[in-house]
Structures are given as C-alpha cells and as structure tokens.
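User: Fold this, then the next.

Assistant: Folding the first:
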Amino acid sequence: MGPTILVTPTADPDGIASHLAQLAANGLAMPRGMWDRARISVPACGPGGEYFGRLIPGRGFYLAMDLESLGITRRIPGVFEQSPMRRVMDALLDERGLITSQDGINAARGSGLSQDVALSKATITTVANTYSSLYRAGGLPVAGTFTNIPGGAAHNKNSTGAWSFGLSNPVSPNRKYLVRLGFTHAQIVNQIILVDLLVAAGNIDTNISTTQAISSVPLTRYASGAGVLMTFEVTTALGATASTLTVTKYTNQAGMTLRATPAVAMTTSAIVQRLQPAALGPFMELQAGDYGVRSVEDVQLSAAMLAGVIALNLYFPLAFIPGIAANVAIREPFDDLRELITETGQVVGCLTGYVFANTTTTGLGTYSLRTVEG
C-alpha cells in the first residue's frame, strides 16, 4: 500500500521547513548502520497529520514529495526529495506482514479484529527544545515504574504505565498492527516520538564516579538488537557538578560484547523526566560501526554530580509525529503499517512517548491508538 500524500492547505512553509530540519537532525543522530546494514527506517508525518516520509538513520530524512509542493524554495540540509518513481519503489519495498492493503485493514476491522485505545497524561514540567519521557507522567494509564539495577526488567503491554495496556495479543498466526496514532496537548509540543520500551533499569546513581553494574535483562522483542537505541531518563533531579556518562560495556546487535560508547556530557541540574544525553536527542551515541544494542552491562560517570538518579531505557522508535499548536489534534495514519508483533507468539510491546518540548510544560495530553490484527 503506497503512501497517501495530503498537504494541509493552511500549512506555513516556514513551520514545515523547521519540522523537516528537525526530522533530518533526528535521522542524522541515529546510528547509520540501522539503515546501511539492517534497512531500518522510521515513518514521520507532517503538520497536518499526513504521511511525510521516513527518517533514514545516519543519513537524514527522505521526503515523500517535492519541496516546491510545500512552498519551500531552498534546499534543507539532510532532507532528500523523492521522485515519483522512487516513491513507487518505496511502496514496493515497505515492511510487509500479513495485512498489506487498506482493504485488509477494513476487512480486519469489519471482522472484529480491531482495537482502539484512548488515554490521557497529566502535564509534566519540561525545558524548551529538549526531550522528556512521558512514561512516568500520571494519568491513564498510571505513571510507569522502573525495576532497579542490576537487571531491570523487560517491558510489554502489561507493564505499569504502558500506553498499550488495553490491547490484546493477536491470535496465532496473526500479527498486530498500529494503523493510527492521534494526540493533542494543552501546550504546544514540537514533536512526539512513539516508542516501544523494551527494557528499563532504574536506580543508576549519578552521585558516584565508580563503575555501576547494569546487567540489563535480555530483550524479548527485536531480540537481535538491530535498531534498538538507548537513552537515560532522569528519575531524581541531577546535581550541579559537571560530569560525563560512558556506557563502558554493552553488547551490540551482532552479539559483540565489551563495546563502549563515547563519553557524553550530562545536563547539570536536569529535572525529572528529562532524557540524557541532550546533545543528539534521545539517542546515546554507540561505538563506531554499531547500529543497535542487545544489553547494557556497565556504566560510569566521570565525576559525582552531588545528586541524581537515572534509568536506562532500551527502546525501538516507531514513529515521529509533530505538534502544531496547543489543543490541535494530530492524527497520524501509518500508511505502511507499524507492526506491534513481529514474530508469532509475542506479547504486544510497551508503547510510550518521548516529547520534544516547546516550552516549560506539556499541558494535559490526550491520545488515541487504532490497531488491527491479521
């Protein structure tokens, strides 16, 4: 099923260009091997909820239309236009499960093989133009929780705080697909990244500079680790002492152990729910050549920060959705279908959101998920 291209008539070209630049920056910050070696890309929508194109990890953003059609006359670094022929090729090469067309979606919904979930999250305190996690925000579902190190826990739809709490697992051999995500916030947000939270491990102390054993439990989805990213959520506000964080031992997507990330600067005095590191977005830079993480063994800070606790998040990004304005609903149709079950017999994942804030709060957020199985 090829993408449906819809452009909001009232869309502001400058606003669209800013959104495209952000998508390109997100794509460039992700490990290049996700695309070069595993052909993993992530869909994104435009300011009207329309399909816009795909983030290509390590390369930027492929736009599913011409810039001129959006009223943009200058090239945007990291944004690549696609010809009509290329769009046809992309449609043929998209991920495919058992449902491959809109007719298949309609048939599944007509046969009772659909589920829709509505949820709401309380406002959280944020910092403009930085990422925070919505997983531990109060509301429906209730605030999420993390299991402490060593080990942490594998997360799925049954985990406290999972946005997918109301979804059932498909009957074998069916798979589960996310076909639409809708949201609105009482404050404008720049962007929400819908993610599948695979493993989390809490109680990493930022007030010590010795090695801390994480020993994260195995992945239960995306088990190869290809495309699995890591970030760290602040669960107790950080102190004011400058420090860097290094994942001194992790296992990559090929099963290679003793991998290490570059040292990244921590944000001094970072408030709770902010994601670290801040420089690249919610992506911890990996060792050269790696494009995914199976597990994290050890981390170390260069200096004690005097206060603070963080939690490891291992996650797989599912979609990037922009905000437009406060109290304006966005509905993202996933033209290529996002599989929530990638192997027969799996449990639906732990869906949640990372928000790229525009101001100091998110405002009340309401969301809807539409799914089918087949």
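Now the next one, as you asked:
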Amino acid sequence: DHRAATPSQAAEIISRSKYQAARMLPEIRNRLLKAMDRLYSECNLRFSALSTERIIKILEYRTAQLSLQNDDLRRRTDTALHQIYEDKKQFFLQSLAKLDALSPQKVLERGYSVVYKNKKIIKNAAELAAGDLVELRLAQGTSAAEIQ
C-alpha cells in the first residue's frame, strides 16, 4: 500500500507502476512462447523415438493435431496479451490525463491564481488586510498587487 502526500507524488507512483507493468507484457509473452516451444520439442523427441510404422503414423497425426492446437493457442495468447496491453495502456493514459488536469499548472491555466503574502500562500481572505502587498502567481508569470 503506497500513499502519496501530493498529486504529483501520486502521478509518479502510478506512472512507475503502469510503465513497469506495460514493460513486462512482452517479456511474459516471450516466456510463454518459449515454454510452449520447449514442450512441443520435448513431445517431438519422445514421439520420434518410437519406430513401428503404426505408432509413427498415429504420432504424426497427433503431432499435427498438437501443432494446430499450439498455433491456435499462440494466436489466442497473442490476442489476449495485446488486449491486456491495450487495456492497461488506455487506463494509464486516462490516469495521466486525470492527473494532468489536477496539476497546479493546469489549474492556473484555467484562470485561477495563487496569492502569496510574505512568500506564504494565502488560503483565506481573513489573512489579508487593506494595504497588504501580495504576489500573484498566474499561469504565465507573477504580478504584485496591493489589497484595498
């Protein structure tokens, strides 16, 4: 369980975990394919050791069936892994968009500003009095102002 103190920290945690999960999908896919190839090769070795003609024909037929099943499983695995990857990618992009919308800079770009008095953020109008000098942080730059 990870908790983030700020939205920026939350974005970093989510970005790392989603990126790591997305990076692991091709490796998992390759490992599955190698395991299937190894199993197929082991079966082929056992089948080729038998020498009678009838057994050889039965085994060739069974090998062809397994090969077709293997091809089908590969296609289904590829499709499933691709779908998982796309789903995770879409979720990740949506999460990034949500976090981006909540970023302080995006809030400022929507027309809000941050008011500072003596380098401290003002959160309540009661903290200000007529004649106070304040600094306004806008989406692009800062400005000084006097409270009236």
